[in-house]
Sequence to fold (222 residues):
Amino acid sequence: MSAPKVAIFMGAPGAGKGTQAVRVSESIGLAHISTGDLFRENISNDTDLGKRAKGFMESGQLVPDELVLDMLFDRVQQPDCQSGYILDGFPRTVVQAEALTERLNGASVHAVDIQVPDEVIVDRIAGRLLCRSCGNIQHTEFDPPETEGVCSKCSGELYQRKDDAPDTVKDRLAVYHEQTAPVVDYYHSRGILARVDGMQSPDSVFQSLIQGLPEEWKRESV
Ligand code: AP5
Ligand code: MG
Ligand code: ZN
Fold:
């Protein structure tokens, strides 16, 4: 069996990590693992972990590393992650990146930075709509639902995230530049970083992501 393939999608809040991770996951058959989604699931199920993470998330701060690492490493042990997975929103600190490197000994790792300027982020997040039933991501302007408040994929209810309030977005961006930008350098210095222009249309970003995958991944999937 070939080494597990692990793709790491990085980028500021609203850069399009979730939108693209869903599409790439369907296209190359690797599980999509979003630490933000895992925390939101824990919060809506009112678990202990959810209770501990809630205040950090709602104020736009990072959840402490030890909570994130336990949750993530537990999740990627599941059978659907055996051949590999796409990480969306993890690692977000150098401590998390180092823990992942240690854990991934022998895996084929590919990191991508989806680049979008801060000014654009604010509009993207202000208009984001999420489906309560299937997690589909839409946008009031860039991907509007046919019927207001109704998911175009499954007809579920669309909602806005609490941490998408403009003041919290400013805090999330500051946290990103301070704590997560160094993770991009971490992968760059290891020679496994691709950069993709996140200002293109969602279809073009998708094409760029697929084209940028390691050659050996592409060979194996044909
Ligand atoms: P998380 O859920 O990961 O949020 P985030 O990183 O802030 O990123 P977003 O989900 O907001 O943006 P995205 O890049 O996925 O963009 P999307 O595709 O939706 O984390 C939330 C919180 O959880 C954190 O603040 C933290 O508290 C905690 N947390 C999570 N992981 C953690 C970790 N590892 N360590 C510690 N704490 C952690 O797109 C945004 C919008 O733009 C959508 O409406 C979409 O339709 C639209 N759009 C997408 N692409 C395009 C395009 N090309 N053109 C036009 N519009 C587009
Ligand atoms: Mg997301
Ligand atoms: Zn839906």
